[in-house]
């Protein structure tokens, strides 16, 4: 497999802008739209696909904290033993809030193109499972796990988990720091320590690349969810047999279908909420997802999957907060009489410098 | 619902501010040329953002000119006009029209009905040009109305409708960036809707009107968490786009400017009432 950085001609730790500039330049050269009259346009298109794939791979890895100047800083600082060089804020969630927890209305949302896994890239920051056999604790000791709330869980050969790290796309495994690290690479878990209904679940990662650079369909890119594969599951006979079907639906990214089934169920235990969180994430309902993930945890604390899901959902927010904190917020003028006027005042300030009055005409 | 996607002016470089303004003025000119005075009245910052985003992504031919107008009669301003400001102007009309109709239907707001009537023929032109997009936007607005009438408390459902509307706007064309733009639009739309609900929470409560945050309340930290979660999804998709030229402006808006409304909305009401 080609090194994506070589394809674009940039360095692994170059900043995003450099990577993007390189992509743009190459794209201009090889994009099909710019090669209509080129006798070698097929070759150009092939090259373009490689460029596109390389770019997307790099940017996706960077969203997991792999590559880029931040990654380099972390590596250097951990080598120097100087601790974290990341100065982002440590925003933490406010815990269980006054969300309307049980108001999960049974909705017949339309099965339009948005609902069945269209939002497959939303929210779910899978926490990286460190496939190395370091046997360390649940917060990975891999270098530079600083700054971000690195919620990496080690599924090593210890305790109740057996991890088979096969097909470990190693570039993902080091991404303990990034948000949305996407590391359910065919790990199989024996949940023998849990007296529950879900043994031998395997998380299957559909993999980031579906093989075609253009394929932005539901089953293609960003299939970064871990969910029960539906294989080898044993269900308590008392429970609704439907959870198995839900797991299958989630596994094949049919989030709407999963949601539909979940809504029709009466038994709502912790697993119901866990699945519901994942289904909602797939549908872009990240708030409900977080809410349900927390509920699952509250109902059955101590299950690492629930913590991972919660942390995963929040890790992106933490990263965002870090960047947002680099700006000084534009504050309100407390002399304002109402919100809309407040915004209008800012509008006026925005443009008044040119000598004129800007009135927001249609709020 | 408009006016939340703005820049954080003190934090922006002067040259970027000039650039931002040139898009704004360019959009204004497009609205004026295509839709006249009434069209121009619909100008807003959110669609300016869209024009900057799309231009940053596609970087096509831009005409730079100057304008002098009623609003700033004392100095000429640069304008940037291109395919994307034109597209933004179309979407501007469409969205304003629908919003006004909606406000009329919901609150019997006469002023909005007048505006909607005035925009109708222009909006029709845009609907002819983008029939499917218009239809989907209408459907989402209708769904949103239904949720509101039913007192829906699940914020994901209500804000999701507006999210999908923004998605439609962001989907300029079907290409390799389609999914990122759509998702970005979706979450930005959700953000706007939730923020708007937050800002209107108290007045809606007083007037007995629907507010999407009824089931959650308007605790500042709770809402901040929700909004942060939403924006993080939006920016995650934004960062995938290979935008170089307008990146500083866009990042200013996405990471900071959008929170201005939140800061304002968080000022306690009694403070707001002091003149």
| N-end to C-end Cα span of chain B | 25 Å
List the total number of helices of chain A. 11
The geometry of chain A reads as extended
- The succession of helices and strands of chain B, N to C, reads HHEEHHHHHHHHH
Largest interface: A-B, 86 and 90 residues
**Number of domain units of chain A:** 3
**Total domains of chain B:** 1
Task: Please specify the SSE layout and strand pairing.
The complex is a heterodimer of chains A (363) and B (275).
Chain A: H1 4-8, H2 16-30, H3 41-63, H4 68-79, H5 170-173, E1 187-189, E2 201-203, H6 242-251, H7 255-264, H8 270-282, H9 286-299, H10 304-324, H11 339-351
Antiparallel strand pairs in A: 1-2
Helix pairs in contact in A: 2-3, 6-7, 6-8, 7-8, 8-9, 9-10
Chain B: H1 14-40, H2 45-58, E1 63-69, E2 72-81, H3 83-107, H4 110-129, H5 131-150, H6 155-170, H7 178-207, H8 220-238, H9 247-255, H10 260-266, H11 269-273
Antiparallel strand pairs in B: 1-2
Helix pairs in contact in B: 1-2, 1-3, 2-3, 2-9, 3-4, 3-5, 4-5, 5-6, 6-7, 7-8, 7-10
Briefly summarize what is shown:
The complex is a heterodimer of chains A (363) and B (275). Helix content of chain A is 39%, strand content 2%. By secondary structure, chain A is an all-alpha fold.
Could you please describe the fold and organization of this structure?
The complex is a heterodimer of chains A (363) and B (275). With 363 residues, chain A is mostly helical. Chain A contains eleven helices and two strands, in the order αααααββαααααα. Chain A has a two-stranded antiparallel ribbon. The relative contact order of chain A is 0.11. Chain B has a single domain, classed as Farnesyl Diphosphate Synthase (Orthogonal Bundle). The chains are: A mainly alpha (363), B mainly alpha (275). The interface between A and B is large, with 86 and 90 residues.
List keywords for this structure.
heterodimer; A: 363 residues; mainly alpha; Helix Hairpins; 3 domains; two-stranded antiparallel ribbon; 11 helices; 39% helix; disordered C terminus; B: 275 residues; Farnesyl Diphosphate Synthase; two-stranded antiparallel sheet; 70% helix; globular
């Amino acid at each position: 497999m080609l090194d994506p950085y070589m394809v674009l001609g940039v360095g692994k730790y170059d900043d995003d802008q450099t990577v993007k500039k390189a992509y743009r330049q190459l794209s201009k050269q090889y994009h099909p739209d710019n090669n209509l009259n080129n006798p070698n346009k097929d070759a150009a298109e092939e090259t373009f696909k490689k460029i596109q794939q390389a770019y997307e791979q790099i940017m996706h890895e960077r969203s997991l904290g792999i590559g880029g100047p931040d990654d380099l800083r972390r590596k250097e600082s951990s080598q120097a033993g100087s601790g974290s060089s990341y100065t982002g804020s440590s925003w933490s969630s406010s815990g269980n809030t006054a969300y309307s927890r049980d108001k999960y209305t049974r909705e017949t949302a339309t099965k339009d193109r948005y609902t069945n896994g269209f939002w497959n890239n939303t929210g779910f920051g899978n926490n990286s499972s460190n496939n190395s056999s370091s046997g360390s604790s649940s917060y990975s000791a891999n270098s530079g796990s600083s700054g971000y709330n690195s919620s990496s869980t080690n599924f090593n050969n210890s305790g109740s988990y057996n991890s088979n790290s096969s097909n470990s796309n190693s570039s993902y495994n080091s991404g303990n720091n990034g948000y949305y690290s996407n590391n359910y690479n065919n790990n199989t878990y024996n949940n023998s320590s849990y007296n529950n209904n879900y043994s031998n679940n395997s998380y299957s990662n559909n993999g980031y690349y579906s093989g075609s650079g253009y394929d932005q369909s539901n089953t293609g890119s960003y299939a970064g969810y871990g969910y029960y594969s539906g294989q080898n599951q044993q269900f308590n006979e008392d429970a609704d047999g439907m959870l198995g079907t839900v797991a299958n639906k989630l596994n094949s990214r049919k989030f709407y279908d999963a949601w539909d089934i979940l809504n029709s169920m009466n038994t709502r235990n912790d697993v119901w909420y866990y699945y519901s969180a994942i289904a909602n994430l797939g549908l872009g309902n990240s708030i409900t997802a977080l809410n349900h993930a927390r509920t699952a945890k509250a109902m059955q604390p101590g299950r690492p999957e629930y913590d991972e899901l919660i942390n995963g959902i929040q890790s992106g927010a933490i990263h965002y907060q870090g960047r947002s904190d680099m700006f000084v917020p534009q504050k309100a003028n407390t002399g304002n009489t109402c919100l809309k006027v407040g915004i209008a005042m800012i509008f006026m300030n925005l443009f008044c410098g040119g000598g004129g009055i800007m009135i927001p005409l249609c709020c | 619902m408009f006016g939340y996607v703005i820049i954080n002016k003190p934090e922006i470089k002067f040259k970027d501010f000039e650039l931002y303004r040139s898009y704004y003025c360019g959009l204004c000119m497009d609205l004026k040329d295509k839709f006249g005075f009434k069209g121009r009245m619909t100008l807003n910052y959110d669609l300016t953002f869209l024009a900057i985003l799309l231009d940053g992504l596609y970087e096509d031919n831009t005409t730079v000119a100057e304008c002098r107008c009623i609003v700033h009669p004392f100095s000429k301003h640069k304008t940037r006009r291109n395919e994307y400001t034109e597209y933004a102007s179309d979407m501007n009309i469409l969205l304003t029209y629908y919003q006004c109709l909606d406000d009329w239907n919901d609150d019997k707001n006469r002023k909005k009905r007048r505006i909607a009537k005035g925009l109708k023929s222009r909006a029709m032109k845009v609907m002819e040009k983008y029939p499917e997009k218009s239809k989907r936007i209408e459907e989402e607005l209708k769904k949103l109305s239904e949720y509101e009438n039913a007192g829906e408390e699940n914020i994901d459902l209500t804000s999701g409708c507006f999210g999908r509307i923004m998605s439609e706007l962001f989907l300029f064309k079907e290409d390799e960036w389609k999914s990122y733009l759509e998702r970005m639009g979706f979450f930005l739309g959700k953000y706007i809707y939730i923020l708007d609900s937050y800002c209107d929470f108290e007045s809606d409560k007083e007037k007995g009107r629907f507010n999407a945050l009824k089931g959650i309340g308007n605790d500042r930290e709770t809402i901040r968490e929700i909004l942060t979660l939403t924006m993080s999804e939006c920016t995650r998709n934004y960062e995938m786009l290979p935008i170089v030229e307008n990146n500083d402006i866009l990042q200013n808006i996405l990471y900071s400017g959008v929170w201005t409304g939140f800061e304002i909305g968080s000022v306690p009401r009694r403070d707001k009432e002091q003149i």
